[in-house]
Amino acid sequence: MRALLFDRPAPDAGATRVADLESPLPGHGEVAIDVRAAGVNFIDVMARRGDPGYATEWPFVPGLEVAGTVRALGAGVDGPAIGTPVAAFTGSGGLAEVAVVRADLVAVIPEGLSFEQAAAAPGTLTTAALLLNRLQPGESVLVHSAAGGVGQALASLARLRGAGLLLGTVGGASRVQAAEKAGYDAALIRGDGLVEAVRERTGGRGVDLILDPQGTEWIDTDLELVAPGGRIVLFGNASGTPLAPLALGPLFGGNASVGGFSIRGYSAKAPHLVAAALTDVLGKLAQGALTVDPTVVDGLDRAAEAQQALADGRGNGKYVVRL
């Protein structure tokens, strides 16, 4: 099979190549999938540059979400049947012609969905759905990196969950339009003036739920912006900078809480939650209650371009590789 490989940590695509590898076989409790489409995510960039905890070995095959058809079932697995269209959270190894995944992280694709649409569900849409389990109807939400794939998914799903005021932040003016098109009431540029802009839009109260994929780079700002009794959820470290210790004083003073989120952690310790969320978002896509319009690139040879677009901050929305 052909697969995308990172040979070693690198700041760019200089150590990325497409290679011929032996097709993996499913072990006990696993399913092998003939991949028809695979999602590209910022976590690929984090693995490529060697951030701790992402690439488990070198060379490394990235790719955390796939859609395709069941190729083979491992021991102890009685379905879905071979040939069934499925989507799955792989964690890694998805940017390849064949992927092997735990059977309890696989969901059947409903009729009417393309493989390209379904490939955006296991990582991107499922992450958004699980993050929004912390949302109560009517609450205000602020999402950093609002123009990215997860950021846009959060806008759509937050509306379905009954969110009130929905604010997004972006890294530059070129990304404002994409965030606003995704459904945010306002897209604000991170930097000087952000605190004042958010306070103005919330009547000085602050935001009930802040979702932040930037590690702790913006945690001090988050603590200024969170409403009394509000929650901050850190769900990534896109900046790649070392995580800073949290100051407890503002938490006590603001009656606020800070939590963490990792879909990989859920997949390892609570795969039923990932599978349930994946099945739910696939159903919403099929029903038309949720939409996804990924930028599709053809072939593994172009996957590195999509990853670099995310690394450079040029990519808006979701990228999917069609195999």
Automatic annotation (TrEMBL):
Keywords: NADP, Oxidoreductase. The keyword NADP applies. Residues 14-321 form the Enoyl reductase (ER) domain. It holds the Pfam family ADH_N. This is NADPH2:quinone reductase.
